[in-house]
Amino acid sequence: MAGKLEGKIAVLTGAAQGIGLAVATRYAAEGATVVLSDIDGDAVQAAAEGIGGSASAITADVTSEEQVAALIAEVVAQHGGLDIAVANAGVATVQPAVGMSLADWRKVTSVNLDGVFLTLTHAAGAMAASGGGALVTIASVTAQAGSPLISSYAAAKAGAVNLTRTIAIEMREHGVRANAICPGFIDTELVKPHKKTFADALGLEAMGIPDFDAFIAMKQGRYGTEAEVAALATFLASDRAGFCTAGEYNLDGGLRASLL
Amino acid sequence: MSDLELEGRLAHVTGAASGIGWAIAQRLAAGGARVAISDMDEAGAKARAAELGEGHFGVGCDVRSMDQVTAAIAATTDALGGLDLFVNNAGVEIGKPMVETEEEEFMTLVDINVTGVFRCSKAAVPALAAAAASGRDAAIVNIASVAGVGGCPLLSAYCASKAAVIRFSEVCAIELRDAGIRVNAVCPAFIDTPMVQRLAPAVAAMTGMEFGDVVAVKQGRYGTLEEVAEVVAFLGSDEAAWTTGSHYVLDGGISGGLL
Q: What's the CA angle centered on A189, arms A186 and A190, to 5 degrees?
């Protein structure tokens, strides 16, 4: 049975671990040639070797225009084109917005917004040159609502969603589709260390909710999995989603749907 | 990965004797599902089911009648041996200025597009919950529209009804989460259907632009029935097992841009 991404060339940022690695793994299983990129060169090399086959790794810092441009150019030079780019690289800090230093703010926005800009703009240019392609931004439902303690993360994700939409419209006539995925809480390394902090900030104890995991069970049924994000990222990158562009696709167990 | 991501699923699609509903029924069947087709046009529903072949089922149903809805769903679970995917597709449009729309026709549209979704969803829940309780992924997919996301002149009743379907889907998703039933909406833009072609002259007269030009500029091209069916197939599969309370647009970007 042919894979859903047979013959496609895909590049993914932040792919050494977590969601990025899960998406790369699924893309490879669906027949794509995947190029994993990450700021951590050793880890991304190991990740590509773990996937095996035609998977390869290129080290790049998404906050550097020079490095992102070189990444995209290298993918095109090695594989003769680019069909799919996944802007996934992201970081988070957990602290109140009031009192945050500009340096701390930029620590997050430089990766989560500037990095997405650089990835999308360079990838879209390469895709347009070879007849089109699909851009997938890994955003977050935090882009859609106030998100205490992660202001820089949520604001950057909101910016990334809007940028993705705008590029989709600018590039429609060049055959480039662009969509954002907005997952709810996945039990990743970005979330795990901060559960107690979130529980305290949200006043869970006062509501009789024992801890953050119980809160998640109430609000989104359970934690999502990286594989579930990868399934949606596969759909949106595939030709099945040919009329999907400038969209924002939630995947959150119902978290965003509820007012309460 | 197999193309048969819906192998063994037991589905019901309303308004499926023609148009988007028929495309969805074909796609679900191609994905391995057994499909019950319902439509006001009972003969059409049965003919389409026969066209899909053995194992599929056709039944007449007017979604304005709770009795007919209840009977059609009971007949589906009898014929298929259960139900784990329900697609609320039946819908109608009115294409005229709000001030020229009669109260009765507005109410009829709401009765089909909104209350019909409520009737079918309520009647389908026991069978869907039973499927979920036996460990299967159970889902409702509601066919809304980008008309439920943004305003479109001449479609006051239709836009209001589709916005209602999106919000209704959200509430169902939350209420039915513990029962293991996912509820999502799909929002297509202009697809090349008879419904859209009926609308085209009035939109052209109002905007002063050829309808085809509006479509080309705002959404690139017409979407296809098959593209709508692909999104339904994705949301109706266990690939989307954590997706609930969402509305997925497929619109060539028409709702994603400001201008």
A: 75
Long-range contacts of A96-103 (CB under 8 A, 24+ apart): A96/A148, A96/A149, A96/A151, A97/A151, A97/A152, A100/A151, A100/A152
- Cβ contact, residue pair A172, B230, below 8 Å: no
Does A256 contact B246 at a Cβ distance shorter than 8 Å?
Answer: yes
Q: Is B184 on the interface with A (CB under 8 A)?
A: no
By the CB < 8 Å criterion, does A246 face chain B?
yes
- A54 burial (CB, 10 Å; 0-12 / 13-18 / 19+) is middle
Provide the number of CB pairs (under 8 Å) joining chain A to chain B.
114
Fold observed for domain B10-92+114-143+161-186+224-245: Rossmann fold (3.40.50)
> Cα B146 vs. chain centroid, distance in angstroms?
13
Q: List, for residues B63-76, the tens digit of each pLDDT value.
A: 999 999 999 999 99
Chain A positions in Cβ-Cβ contact with residue B239 (cut-off 8 Å):
231-232, 235
pLDDT at B1: 42
Residue among A224, A235, A247 minimizing CB distance to B249: A247
CB atoms closer than 10 angstroms to residue B129:
16
**Domain A9-186+225-251 falls in which CATH fold?**
Rossmann fold (3.40.50)
Considering only CB atoms, A169 lies closest to which of B227, B230, B253, namely: B253
**ipTM computed for the complex:** 0.92
Starting at the edge strand found earlier in the chain, the sheet holding B247-250 runs B57-60, B34-39, B10-13, B85-88, B138-143, B181-188, B247-250
A181 touches chain B (CB under 8 A): no
Classify the C-alpha dihedral B100-B105-B111-B116 as positive or negative.
Answer: negative
Contacts of B226 in chain A (CB under 8 A): none
Q: Give domain limits for chain A.
A: 9-186+225-251, 189-223
Q: pLDDT tens digit string along A58-109?
A: 999 999 999 999 999 999 999 999 999 999 999 999 999 999 999 999 999 9
Residue B165 at interface with chain A, using a CB cutoff of 8 Å: no
What residue segments make up the domains of chain B, in order of their start? 10-92+114-143+161-186+224-245, 189-222
> One-letter amino acid identity for A52?
G
Q: Which residues of B touch A235 (CB under 8 A)?
A: 234, 239
Does residue A240 sit at the B interface (CB-CB below 8 Å)?
yes
